[in-house]
Amino acid sequence: MHAAVHDSIAFSFDPQQVADYLEANGLESTIVESGSSVAEYDVVVTFGHEETLFEAPWVHCIRAGIDEFPTDRYAETDTKLTHSPGIHATTIGETVAGMMLSFARRLHRYRDNQHENAWRVESYDAAFTLADETVCVVGLGTLGEGVALRANALGMDVVGVRRRPKPVSGVDSVFLPDDLSDAIADARFVVLCVPLTEDTEAMIGANEFQAMRDDAYLINVARGPVVDENALLDALESGDIAGAGLDAHTEEPLPADSPLWDKEEVILTPHVGALTDSYHEDVGALVVANAERIQRGESMFDRVA
Ligand code: NAD
Q1: Which residues form ligand 1's pocket by a CB distance below 6 Å?
Q2: pLDDT score for 123
Q3: pLDDT per residue over 188-244, tens digit each?
Q4: What is the location of CATH 3.40.50.720 in the chain?
Q5: Are 204 and 213 in contact (CB under 8 A)?
Q6: pTM
Q7: Cα 192 to ligand 1 centre (Å)
Q8: What are the pLDDT digits (tens) for 30-60?
Q9: Cis link prior to 70 (omega < 30° from 0)?
Q10: Does residue 223 contact residue 67 with C-beta atoms inside 8 Å?
Q11: Homologous superfamily of 2-87+276-295 in CATH?
């Protein structure tokens, strides 16, 4: 089997690394530039979509979220589309734990002060501990379970929102999406871990910010449009919530003139919450596993279309 490694994955990691991993695991691999024909390959491993990818029999997206892919059109063609869920529990879980710890222990503020060589002590009651605080995890798939596990380890109470009311290990109460306002009402942290769909677009807006505690923090590691960003800015400015940790943004890169950059109680990261030095191996293992399934005549894992 011959894999094309699309250079768009350079956003996440060096394409050569996954090419080397695939070669070491039995797949011939070639790095291809955006816009090149991929008709001669058995699979294209890619970050983003472009029209030429329809030439290949199989496209594997290295991301979990597939919202930027025209999945309906893939379903109408002979090109199979797979994605990469199930590999970001630890990275995103730790990113969210880091943001929560920073807000509670005030690390972001002291790092800001460090840039000014300033020995500046906040009021003692600006700091709090995560133990016994409540986090509401919205979406209890791979990311959500990874967040819940780490929140449990930090002594937090965990509630969550999922589409079916099935109990989830480590989550004390599970709410349905229709009860989102109740789910988030008592939480010190609301963490978004849902895919971007018609149902989740702008699911956090003015009503939800009003339902949240005024000392609560929103953390978005899902997709930017899950949050109404104008309503978020209003909520931060009016004190409806205390702050936000944002890895995903409505427009990426976040425009340089966005007022979010200047907010003291906002931690911004450029959609890097899942990056890790083993990303290429995690993705490569998914491609190899599916290549082996094709060779055995079995159905593929993580197929979107
Ligand atoms: P997943 O499919 O394992 O889990 C998503 C969960 O959300 C599922 O359990 C699903 O049932 C649930 N869900 C869907 N709609 C819902 C709704 N309206 N209310 C409540 N729950 C709902 O996916 P995952 O790996 O956990 O990733 C989730 C999303 O996070 C991805 O689609 C992607 O957009 C985003 N993501 C971001 C990063 C990053 O770098 N920040 C990394 C990985 C994934």
Answers
A1: 64-65, 85, 88, 92, 138-144, 161-163, 177, 193-197, 199-200, 221-223, 247-248, 271, 273-274
A2: 97
A3: 999 999 999 999 999 999 999 999 999 999 999 999 999 999 999 999 999 999 999
A4: 2-87+276-295, 89-268
A5: no
A6: 0.96
A7: 8
A8: 999 999 999 999 999 999 999 999 999 999 9
A9: no
A10: yes
A11: NAD(P)-binding Rossmann-like Domain (3.40.50.720)
Is residue 188 a contact partner of residue 217, using CB atoms and an 8 Å limit?
yes
For residue 6, list its beta bridge partners: 32
Strand 58-61 and strand 80-82: the pairing is parallel
Longest dimension (CA), the chain: 65
Q: Which of 47, 140, 143 to mutate to test the pocket of ligand 1 (most atoms within 8 A of CB)?
A: 143
Residue 44 CA to ligand 1 centre (angstroms): 23
3-state helix, strand, coil in the chain (%, to 5): 40, 15, 45
Percent of the chain with pLDDT strictly greater than 70: 100
Q: DSSP string of 47-78?
A: SS--GGGGGSSEEEESSS--TTS-HHHHHHSS
Across the range 76-87, mean pLDDT stands at 96
**Which ligand 1 atom is at minimum distance from the Cα of 140?**
9
pLDDT for residue 165: 86
Give yes or no for a contact between 200 and 228, defined as CB atoms under 8 angstroms apart: no
CATH ID of 89-268, from 3.40.50.300, 3.40.50.720, 1.10.3720.10, 3.30.950.10? 3.40.50.720
Centre of ligand 1 to C-alpha 81, Å, is 18
As a whole number of angstroms, the distance between CA 146 and CA 182 comes to: 23
Can you tell me the ipTM of this complex? 0.99
- What does the pLDDT look like over 142-200, one tens digit per residue? 999 999 999 999 999 999 999 998 999 999 999 999 999 999 999 999 999 999 999 99
